[in-house]
User: Which sequence fits this backbone?
């Protein structure tokens, strides 16, 4: 058991470490095509995330991020921060420094300030006139502006304030989507949960919005390690999503997140009915053919292929904003699932052969299997001498005898204890200071 | 007023009741107050012509007086040990249970005298059988607790004659009649605490755990030191058996749980280390707590539970492996040192002997290979049937007691007045609620009220 424990600790430590880990240049990632799927804040965030973790792509990512900040936001703070980081990276490689566009910084700073003043004045005016719709619009515009400037908490405040002025279902949905967007960016997933529920309870939701809500809820569940729920939600996401939610997530992501979560948490039957036979999700899978291959490989028990694909894409996923700290757990679970599934049709399995198909060594495999057995995920025992894994022959009859004898004893003891207690209480023999 | 009736000599006393039937309730009620007021020197008198007053008494018919005289004699400066011993044995053999129930404290006093004298005599083995018999005779049933119980167990513990206590311990205590038996809560706590210790001495840890649990979960508004000590042992025994602290019953008093948290922290830390099944951590924790354990006299028990960790790990291995070399076992279990595999072999041999695991060790290989097997008991022999029947009989007897208690509760004043209250409370005007009318049977309302008043 000590092995288990240490493994557990190691996994935890690893997860923490991944936050700062440097990832080798990924095998399959093409930064330009990858990032073209996104727009707005998530594009910047993802680029900065990659830049921080992957030295090989650092400079390119910073440059793209700066470009994006300049063109589509008013967030001068982020601009300066990113530029300084870029310059650090450049100078460490001995390359000429990047010229900060200070004219842009100054002008945006001024523009942002004047906009805030203008919008606040307008809002005040609306409030005096007591026109609900105008007040809502005023809050919204102010929120949009704050969001643009990167002050997310202020944006969240403004968006939530519109709540009191919502008059139609459409307004409510708009408000919810805004809050969800900001909350995801803030990493405040409990907010996401509650606003998804609120939005879903309104009537007549357009299918695109429905898809957005599903994805948002799925991300929230992914964050709280509820992989199975997350998988189900990803799988229920309509393909209407396509590129309509690229300020948060791309359809490629849905395929990857959904596929991995499903592999890690579904059993074979669920995999077949909910993933492989899912026409809607198939369209997502077309975008990421390797995930499709992965799922089919897993379903058809080609484990070497599965592990190969997983290994190849591992670095890419470490650079994913949402997936990176769940990757180890997901991979672990998929591997466990594979081991269990591999053994399920057999009575005995040669460990050497098994190790081969899982590309590992026998002692390592033995330890993995021992862990699965102690967790009661595989009903089997290891013949360590002959290196054979044998299914456990369960004798139900003996089991019942054992169980009922034990239960009888328990019953006797508990009843006696209760009787004694009752009589003690009746006789008032309670442990007390003065009854001695 | 009663002092005027006090007899002057022991002869007067004997004469005053000899003409009535000494076993009748009336006499005991009159006699007892008199006896209680007399000084102990009174009972050490002899009758006029140097006759022994005990000779003129019938042990069974005059148990009370006999007891008073015996006790007083044992307490003089230099008692005549051998003669008194035989007197006491005779008394314990023949005393009248009903009479002594009026003065249980005297019976306890005599039992204590007996132990004291026997120790002076240099042979207290002779006391155990008679004492056990006395308890059985004195208690209304085998399930009743008497004031002698805890004293008897303490004697057994002190002189390490654990097996002598078994006939008493094997019967679960469920009945309490504190007026008849003159007991208080300490009797109950101490009896079960000592009982647990006796069972530890006998290595019947399962039962010891049960006894300690009874102590800890006793109804309480403050915590007794006995309960804290019991909890300490409970933790260690529980670790020994199951590798974790078995949760206490839900009805355990909150005060006790809080006190345990405050006063037994080292034990809980030790348990936490134990639950991690990390041998190193447990060893460290044990090192840290050695002084405390030693102070509480629990060190031996703690050491034993440390051994239990290895046994538990081996037990786990049997679930996982069919065959495993001794070296691998030693490694997996966490044994260290150059002869780790031979220690592992030792453990396995002992476990096979106690039928904790089923395995064979073969030394035809280099390191020694252990093959684990399933429990060979297929539950298809007559032995199983006997065992099951035994259990069923036991369960049935427990059931009987439950039914009896249920009956008693149903007839009790408290229950009936509560019922009555519930009924009349719900309908101040005397009109029944629909479902309660069902319960009473239609139209039978009036007579039930009468019954309630009768009992109330």
Assistant:
């Amino acid at each position: 058991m000590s092995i288990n424990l240490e493994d557990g600790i190691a996994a935890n430590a690893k997860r923490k470490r991944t936050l700062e880990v440097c990832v080798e240049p990924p095998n399959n990632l093409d930064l330009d095509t990858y990032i073209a799927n996104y727009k707005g804040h998530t594009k910047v965030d993802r680029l900065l995330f990659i830049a921080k973790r992957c030295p090989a792509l650092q400079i390119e990512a910073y440059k793209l991020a700066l470009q994006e900040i300049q063109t589509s936001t008013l967030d001068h703070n982020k601009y300066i921060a990113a530029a300084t980081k870029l310059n650090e990276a450049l100078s460490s490689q001995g390359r000429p420094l990047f010229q900060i566009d200070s004219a842009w910084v100054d002008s945006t700073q001024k523009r942002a300030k004047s906009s805030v003043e203008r919008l606040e004045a307008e809002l005040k005016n609306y409030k005096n006139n007591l026109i609900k719709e105008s007040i809502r619009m005023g809050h919204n515009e102010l929120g949009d502006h704050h969001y643009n400037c990167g002050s997310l908490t202020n944006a969240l405040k403004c968006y939530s304030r519109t709540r009191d002025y919502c008059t139609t279902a459409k307004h409510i949905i708009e408000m919810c989507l805004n809050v969800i967007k900001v909350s995801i960016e803030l990493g405040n997933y409990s907010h996401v949960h509650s606003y998804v529920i609120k939005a879903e309870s309104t009537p007549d939701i357009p299918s695109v919005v429905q898809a957005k809500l599903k994805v948002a809820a799925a991300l929230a569940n992914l964050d709280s390690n509820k992989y199975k729920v997350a998988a189900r939600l990803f799988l229920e996401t309509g393909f209407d999503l396509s590129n309509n939610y690229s300020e948060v997530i791309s359809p490629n992501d849905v395929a990857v997140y959904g596929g991995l979560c499903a592999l890690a948490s579904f059993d074979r039957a669920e995999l077949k009915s909910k993933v492989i036979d899912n026409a809607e999700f198939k369209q997502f899978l077309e975008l990421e053919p390797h995930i499709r291959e992965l799922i089919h490989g897993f379903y058809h028990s080609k484990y070497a292929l599965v592990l190969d694909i997983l290994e190849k894409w591992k670095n890419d996923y470490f650079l994913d904003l949402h997936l990176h700290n769940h990757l180890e757990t997901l991979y672990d679970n998929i591997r466990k699932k594979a081991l269990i599934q591999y053994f399920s049709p057999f009575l005995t399995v040669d460990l050497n052969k098994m190790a081969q198909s899982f590309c590992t060594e026998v002692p390592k495999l033995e330890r993995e299997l021992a862990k699965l057995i102690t967790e009661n995920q595989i009903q089997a025992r290891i013949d360590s001498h002959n290196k054979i894994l044998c299914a456990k022959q369960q004798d139900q009859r003996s089991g019942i005898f054992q169980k009922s004898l034990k239960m009888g004893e328990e019953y006797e003891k508990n009843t006696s204890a209760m009787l004694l207690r009752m009589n003690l209480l009746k006789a008032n023999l309670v442990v007390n200071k003065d009854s001695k | 007023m009663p002092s005027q009736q006090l007899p002057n000599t022991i002869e007067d006393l004997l004469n005053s009741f000899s003409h009535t039937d000494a076993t009748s309730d009336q006499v005991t009620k009159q006699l007892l107050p008199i006896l209680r007021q007399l000084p102990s020197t009174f009972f050490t008198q002899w009758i006029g012509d140097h006759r022994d007053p005990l000779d003129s008494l019938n042990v069974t018919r005059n148990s009370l007086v006999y007891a008073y005289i015996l006790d007083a004699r044992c307490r003089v400066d230099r008692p005549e040990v051998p003669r008194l011993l035989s007197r006491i044995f005779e008394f314990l053999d023949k005393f009248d249970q009903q009479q002594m129930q009026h003065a249980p404290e005297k019976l306890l006093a005599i039992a204590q005298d007996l132990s004291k004298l026997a120790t002076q005599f240099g042979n207290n083995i002779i006391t155990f059988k008679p004492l056990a018999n006395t308890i059985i005779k004195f208690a209304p049933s085998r399930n009743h607790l008497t004031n002698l119980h805890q004293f008897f167990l303490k004697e057994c513990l002190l002189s390490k004659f654990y097996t002598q206590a078994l006939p008493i311990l094997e019967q679960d205590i469920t009945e309490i009649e504190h007026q008849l038996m003159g007991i208080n809560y300490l009797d109950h706590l101490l009896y079960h605490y000592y009982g647990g210790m006796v069972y530890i001495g006998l290595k019947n840890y399962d039962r010891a755990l049960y006894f300690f649990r009874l102590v800890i979960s006793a109804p309480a508004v403050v915590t007794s030191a006995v309960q804290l000590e019991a909890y300490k042992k409970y933790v260690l025994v529980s670790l020994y058996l199951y590798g974790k602290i078995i949760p206490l019953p839900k009805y355990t008093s909150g005060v006790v749980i809080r006190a345990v948290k405050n006063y037994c922290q080292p034990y809980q830390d030790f348990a936490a280390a134990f639950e991690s099944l990390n041998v190193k951590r447990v060893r460290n924790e044990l090192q840290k707590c050695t002084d405390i354990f030693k102070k509480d006299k629990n060190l031996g028990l703690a050491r034993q539970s440390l051994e239990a960790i290895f046994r538990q790990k081996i037990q786990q291995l049997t679930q996982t492996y069919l065959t495993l070399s001794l070296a691998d076992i030693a490694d997996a279990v966490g044994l260290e040192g150059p002869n780790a595999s031979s220690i592992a072999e030792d453990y396995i041999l002992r476990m096979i002997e106690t039928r904790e695991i089923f395995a064979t060790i073969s030394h035809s290989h280099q390191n020694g290979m252990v093959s684990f097997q399933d429990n060979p008991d297929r539950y298809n022999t007559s032995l199983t049937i006997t065992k099951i029947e035994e259990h069923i009989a036991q369960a049935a007897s427990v059931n009987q007691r439950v039914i009896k208690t249920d009956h008693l509760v149903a007839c009790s004043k408290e229950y009936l007045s509560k019922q009555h209250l519930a009924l009349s409370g719900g309908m101040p005007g005397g009109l029944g609620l629909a479902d309660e009318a069902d319960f009473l049977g239609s139209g039978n309302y009036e007579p039930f009220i009468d019954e309630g008043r009768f009992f109330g």
Notes: Strands of chain A lie at 348-350, 380-383, 388-391. Chain A touches chain B through 47 residues (CB under 8 Å). The longest strand of chain A covers residues 380-383. Residues 143 and 155 of chain A are 4 Å apart (CA to CA).
